Each structure stands twice: as structure tokens, then as C-alpha cells.
């Protein structure tokens, strides 16, 4: 996230419109993070930054090579003075604030992230953690540093590449074009094989920085900065770039495959705006407007500050804060960014600290200190001595393995990249009859241990077929993420082939309804289609308790407020539940019965007028869920045992 300023000493002319582009990028990212459903494609602001960074830094490197002023030590000294001052301030503040807000387990993860950020490897750490059951993004205050890591990984090798091209008298444009093409092709291939790897792998992102580098090589060799001679054509290119960028910001959603075609569109749009500038009316009146330039100048510290502030506020609030509070945190990000730019960045880069060699060493020492602080936080801490068994469990049992205990992940509960062909043969039990056909998302996958326990008891004899998949509710014609619609179509074909006596549908219903991710008419049509396919009965299970945040965090916070030997209450009032769950549960029930299905309420099992169960009894040493709502093995077994008479018709 490189910035030039009007008093920079580079030989190329300062372009205020570049800061205007940077303003668009950072504002898009902040609005997307603050109001996720207002500008869903705002995360491509990072891709705009990649192009701008590749353009500005490659332009400086190529100029230095042409003029015989290239020096690798000087380049990295400039990078250190550019990147580290603001980064160290934000990291130190984040670690200090997080130690007051986060639970021990979250602090351990933050410590690991701080260590990886200190060596610019955040993308690899996040890649290794990725998965559907990884902690939500908003619980990772340093998550946004993945993009900075990719930039710095690029600049580890890029100066040497350009130096070799110059030494061997090879034209940089053709060579950079080859790098761009190879990286882009690799990105497109990797996107099909592993979506997460394509997002975080540096080689699948280098083409975006190379696109900026190609622009830099072109503008240095071509007259008038490489822009078309005709001003009208420059205007056409500028308008086309802005329109294309607008389409990406408006139409792109997090559920779409990314990077890929959408990232390519953002890179092309940014390149057009760079190439056509800076003297079109759009550049002069919009991108070079003083407000845009000012935001662009503070864009790097603004990017650094906004995410920790928003995440810590969300963790403290227990969910997305009200709109007014979100705007307050955005304003705080802007203020801190300006203060950082004015009193930290400028003195080190352009003021009295610029010429002092010791500054580079001190900044590197600060990075080592951040790594050491991260290591200290990442150490596992023993459970609080003398605490009740429940509290010790909440402090020591975490992670995907705990959450998915008893599930059949990637065999019968499929991940993002799997299709209906990936269900293992043992996911289908054709005998004994009746057959229970379990269909839904990961929450339905969490019910499998309960059905298995019911089978093992022998009170009910039935075959169990499981067709569940992460973030894929059983609603036909619905595509909350790639491959989901095809999975549901395949599941309906299995219903038609197997003719199960009982189809059980379960999902995170109300979350889908809140965000209007499917039309309720499709929900009713799904029930009707299942009945038409030959199923005997369709049983829809309504939401079990879904809490405002992870239940362990809620219980630990309650425990902190009482005596050390106390135990959090067995039940919590409805105020701790997600705001919409009861209203949407009633709507799901109404729609189910209208479509000819049978409805069983999860809330009725776990809740009474005194509140909803946090564990099964006073002696239980684990909660009913280790996150916001996926049931534990014990809770799942209890749930299915309670509703079995209704599922099997013994009402």
C-alpha cells in the first residue's frame, strides 16, 4: 500500500489522481467491513491497492535503473521507512487493547497472527487456518495484514528481477507481461482446485502487482506517459474504467469465486484509470479533488487502523454494533490515521528522521519486539486454578476438532469444493427401514451424532442417509456459495431414487432469512418437490438456540463478573439469543405447514420461560455449543432423543 506525496523526491511527477484512486480503494474496503451488505464488493479495494503499488514502486525502480541510481539496500531502507512506522504503532495498540477485550484463546490466536505479521507471512498463517469452522473474520484483529504480506513477498524478489532484466538488456515490458500471464493462469487454475489457496497464495496474486509494473514500464517508454494522444480517447478510457470498477463494487459478492474474473475486471478498471490520467475532466474534478487526495494520503494508516477498531468493537458488543456506533468507529479510524500520518509517517519518511541511519535499525528492532510480544501471547495458558469444571472446559477445549466432534466431515458433511459425487457410500443406509434422509447445512451435520446415538440405543430401528454440506441450506434454486445449487439438485435426485420414508430438513434458517439469501417461496417449493419425488414425510426442524456470539465467550464473560467459584447459570434469558430467531422460527413453521410439511421447534426443546439451556444440567462440564449454535455431541443426542417420537410418528 504505497503512497507518494506532493513533496516526494522521485523524478516522476506527482499525480494527485493516484491518491484519488487510493481513496476509492480504502473507502470501499472500510464500507464493506463496516456495513457488509451495503457494498458487498468493497473488498476489491485491496486489488486496486495491488495495482497502484506495483505501478508506483516499479516506476521508481525502473527510473533508478535507467539513471544508474539503483541500490538494493536503498530500496529496502525506503520500504522499511515506508511500511514499519505506522504498522508498529497499530500492532502495538492492537495487542494492548486486545489484551483487555479478548478471551485467552482468542489472545493466543492473535499472538500467532502478530508473529506471522512481523515476518510478513500473515497470508500463509490465515491460509493454514482457513476452513468453514475457522473463527469468524471479525475475531481476528490482524487479519487484514495478509495483503501487506503479499506485497512484501512480491518486493522481496521484484527488485532483483528488474535488475537482471536491465543487466541483460531485456525489454522489461515483454518480460513483465510473461510474469503477469503466468501468474494469472496459475491463479485461474488454482481457483478451481482450491478457492482459499487462490485467495492467499502469493503466486496467484502477483499478477495484480505485475499489472501495475507493466503500466510503469509502458509509461516510461511511451510519449506523454503512454496515454492516447487524443484527449477524447483518454476520457473514454477513464469513464470506461470508472464504470467497470463501479460494476465490480456493486455486483460482486463474497459468495462468488474470487480472485478470478472479478479480480481481473478490477485490475483492468484500475489500469484504465491510471493509463488515461491525469488530465481528463474525471481525473481533475473527481480523482484529484482535494478531499480525495487527502483520504488517499492517509490511506495506508487508515487501512491499518480500521480493521482492529471494527473487530474489537464487534467482539466487545457481541455482534455487529448499531449503525451509529459503526460510523463512530469509522470516524475514529480516520482520526487515528491522520494523526499517524502527521506525527509518525511524515517525520520518518520526509522529516528530520529521514537521514538518520539508526532509524532503520530501530524500526527493525520494533518488528522483532512485536514478534516477541506475539510469541508471549500465543503461549497456551493453563485454566484458572480452582475454577469450576465448566470454566476449565471453556478455556481449554477449542478449535474445529472440538466443534466437529462426531461429524462425518468431508465424507457426508461436505466442504466448499466438494460435489454430490463426493458423498461416501456409507452415507447411504438403505436398511433397515424406515429411512431417515438428513438434508441440510453444517447444523444438520451436527445432528448426525444425535441420530447415531438414537440408532445405537435400539429403541428406534431406522436407516440413516446423510446429505449435508457447509453453508448450503436445503432450498432448491438457491446459491449462497458455489456448488450449493448443484448439491441440492443432486440431493433431490437421491430422494427420488431412494424414496425415503422421512426427509429431515435442518439449517441455519433465520440467518439466511435475515440476509434475504433465498425467497421463502423457494423454501415451500422445496418441500413440495421432495414430497413429489416420493418421500413419505417431510419434517422441518426449527432453529435450536442461536446465540448473539460464541456461547463459551458469553459464559466466560458472565463468570468473570461473579465470584471465582461460581458457575454461570444453567439457562440464559432470550436477550442473549440472536434478535431475529423467534420471529423467523414462527415464519419457517408457517411456511412448512402451508407446504404440507411437519415442523418441530428446536427452541421448544432447549428453552422454557426461564430461558434457554447453556448446558444439559448443572453437573455438565461442557456447553450445548462451542460456537454460536452448532450443537455438541451431547446436546445433539439430547435433542434427537427428545424429538424422536415426533420424527417417527409416535406423537
Strand-helix topology:
Layout: H1 16-34, H2 45-66, H3 72-101, H4 104-118, H5 122-129, H6 146-167, H7 172-193, H8 195-200, H9 206-221, H10 231-251, H11 261-276, H12 281-287, H13 290-297, H14 299-317, H15 323-349, H16 357-378, H17 389-396, H18 400-403, E1 413-414, E2 435-440, H19 442-445, H20 448-457, E3 463-469, H21 484-498, E4 502-506, H22 509-514, H23 520-532, E5 537-541, H24 551-560, E6 571-572, H25 581-594, E7 598-600, H26 602-606, E8 607-608, E9 611-613, H27 633-647
Parallel strand pairs: 1-3, 2-3, 2-4, 4-5, 5-7
Antiparallel strand pairs: 6-9, 8-9
Helix pairs in contact: 1-2, 1-12, 1-13, 1-14, 2-6, 2-9, 2-11, 3-4, 3-14, 3-15, 3-16, 4-5, 4-16, 5-6, 7-9, 9-11, 10-11, 14-15, 20-27
Mean pLDDT: 89
Q: In terms of structural class, how would the helical and strand content be classed?
A: mainly alpha
How helix-rich are the residues, as a percent range? 55-70%
Largest sheet, strands/sense/barrel: 6 strands, parallel
Number of strands: 9
Poorly predicted ranges: 2-11
CA radius of gyration: 28 Å
Count up the helices.
Answer: 27
> What strand line-up does the widest sheet have?
1-3-2-4-5-7
Query: What gap, in angstroms, lies between the N and C termini?
Result: 63 Å
Overall tally of domains = 2
Which range does the strand content fall in? 5-15%
Amino acid at each position: 500500500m504505497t503512497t507518494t506525496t506532493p513533496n516526494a523526491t522521485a523524478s516522476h511527477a506527482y499525480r494527485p489522481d493516484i491518491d484519488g484512486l487510493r481513496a476509492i480503494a480504502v473507502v470501499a474496503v472500510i464500507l464493506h467491513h463496516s456495513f457488509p451488505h451495503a457494498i458487498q464488493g468493497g473488498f476489491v479495494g485491496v486489488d486496486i491497492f495491488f495495482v497502484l503499488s506495483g505501478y508506483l514502486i516499479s516506476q521508481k525502480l525502473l527510473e533508478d535503473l535507467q539513471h544508474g541510481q539503483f541500490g538494493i539496500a536503498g530500496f529496502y531502507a525506503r520500504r522499511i521507512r515506508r511500511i514499519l512506522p505506522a504498522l508498529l504503532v497499530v500492532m502495538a495498540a492492537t495487542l494492548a487493547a486486545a489484551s483487555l477485550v479478548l478471551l485467552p484463546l482468542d489472545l493466543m490466536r492473535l499472538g500467532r497472527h502478530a508473529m506471522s505479521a512481523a515476518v510478513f507471512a500473515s497470508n500463509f498463517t490465515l491460509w493454514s487456518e482457513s476452513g468453514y469452522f475457522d473463527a469468524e473474520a471479525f475475531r481476528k484483529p490482524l487479519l487484514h495484514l495478509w495483503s501487506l504480506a503479499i506485497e512484501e513477498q512480491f518486493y522481496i524478489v521484484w527488485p532483483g528481477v528488474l535488475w537482471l532484466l536491465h543487466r541483460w538488456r531485456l525489454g522489461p515490458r515483454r518480460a513483465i507481461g510473461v510474469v503477469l500471464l503466468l501468474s494469472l493462469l496459475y491463479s485461474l487454475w488454482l481457483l478451481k482446485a482450491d478457492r482459499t489457496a487462490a485467495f492467499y497464495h502469493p503466486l496467484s496474486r502477483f499478477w495484480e502487482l505485475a499489472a501495475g509494473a507493466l503500466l510503469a514500464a509502458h509509461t516510461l517508454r511511451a510519449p506523454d506517459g503512454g496515454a492516447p494522444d487524443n484527449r477524447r480517447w483518454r476520457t473514454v478510457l477513464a469513464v470506461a474504467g470508472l464504470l467497470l470498477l463501479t460494476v465490480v463494487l456493486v455486483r460482486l459478492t463474497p459468495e462468488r469465486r474470487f480472485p478470478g474474473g472479478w479480480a481481473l475486471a478490477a485490475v483492468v478498471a484500475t489500469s484504465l484509470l491510471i493509463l488515461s490520467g491525469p488530465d481528463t475532466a474525471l481525473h481533475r474534478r473527481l480523482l484529484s479533488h482535494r478531499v480525495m487526495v487527502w483520504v488517499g494520503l492517509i490511506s495506508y494508516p487508515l487501512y491499518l487502523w480500521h480493521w482492529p477498531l471494527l473487530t474489537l468493537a464487534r467482539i466487545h458488543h457481541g455482534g455487529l454494533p448499531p449503525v451509529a456506533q459503526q460510523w463512530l468507529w469509522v470516524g475514529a479510524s480516520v482520526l487515528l490515521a491522520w494523526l499517524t500520518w502527521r506525527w509518525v509517517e511524515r517525520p520518518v519518511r520526509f522529516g528530520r528522521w529521514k537521514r538518520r541511519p539508526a532509524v532503520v535499525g530501530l524500526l527493525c528492532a520494533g518488528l522483532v519486539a512485536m514478534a516477541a510480544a506475539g510469541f508471549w501471547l500465543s503461549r497456551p495458558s493453563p485454566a484458572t486454578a480452582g475454577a469450576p469444571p465448566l470454566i476449565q472446559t471453556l478455556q481449554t477445549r477449542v478449535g474445529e476438532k472440538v466443534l466437529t466432534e462426531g461429524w462425518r466431515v468431508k465424507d457426508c458433511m461436505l466442504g466448499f469444493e466438494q460435489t454430490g459425487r463426493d458423498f461416501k457410500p456409507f452415507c447411504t443406509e438403505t436398511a433397515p427401514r424406515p429411512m431417515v434422509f438428513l438434508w441440510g447445512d453444517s447444523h444438520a451435520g451436527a445432528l448426525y451424532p444425535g441420530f447415531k446415538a438414537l440408532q445405537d440405543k435400539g429403541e428406534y430401528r431406522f436407516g440413516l442417509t446423510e446429505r449435508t454440506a457447509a453453508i448450503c441450506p436445503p432450498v432448491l434454486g438457491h446459491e449462497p456459495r458455489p456448488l450449493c445449487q448443484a448439491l441440492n439438485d443432486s440431493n433431490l435426485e437421491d430422494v427420488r431414487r431412494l424414496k425415503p420414508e422421512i426427509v429431515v430438513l435442518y439449517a441455519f434458517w433465520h440467518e439466511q432469512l435475515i440476509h434475504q439469501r433465498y425467497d421463502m417461496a423457494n423454501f415451500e417449493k422445496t418441500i413440495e418437490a421432495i414430497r413429489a419425488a416420493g418421500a413419505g414425510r417431510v419434517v422441518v426442524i426449527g432453529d435450536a438456540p442461536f446465540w448473539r456470539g460464541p456461547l463459551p465467550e458469553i459464559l466466560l464473560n458472565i463468570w468473570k463478573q461473579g465470584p471465582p467459584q461460581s458457575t454461570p447459570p444453567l439457562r440464559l434469558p432470550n436477550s442473549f439469543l440472536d434478535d431475529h430467531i423467534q420471529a423467523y422460527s414462527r415464519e419457517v413453521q408457517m411456511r412448512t405447514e402451508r407446504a404440507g410439511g411437519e415442523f418441530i421447534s428446536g427452541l421448544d426443546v432447549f428453552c422454557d420461560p426461564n430461558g434457554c439451556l447453556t448446558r444439559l444440567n448443572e453437573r455438565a462440564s461442557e456447553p450445548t455449543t462451542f460456537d454460536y449454535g452448532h450443537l455438541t455431541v451431547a446436546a445433539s443426542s439430547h435433542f434427537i432423543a427428545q424429538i424422536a417420537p415426533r420424527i417417527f410418528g409416535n406423537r
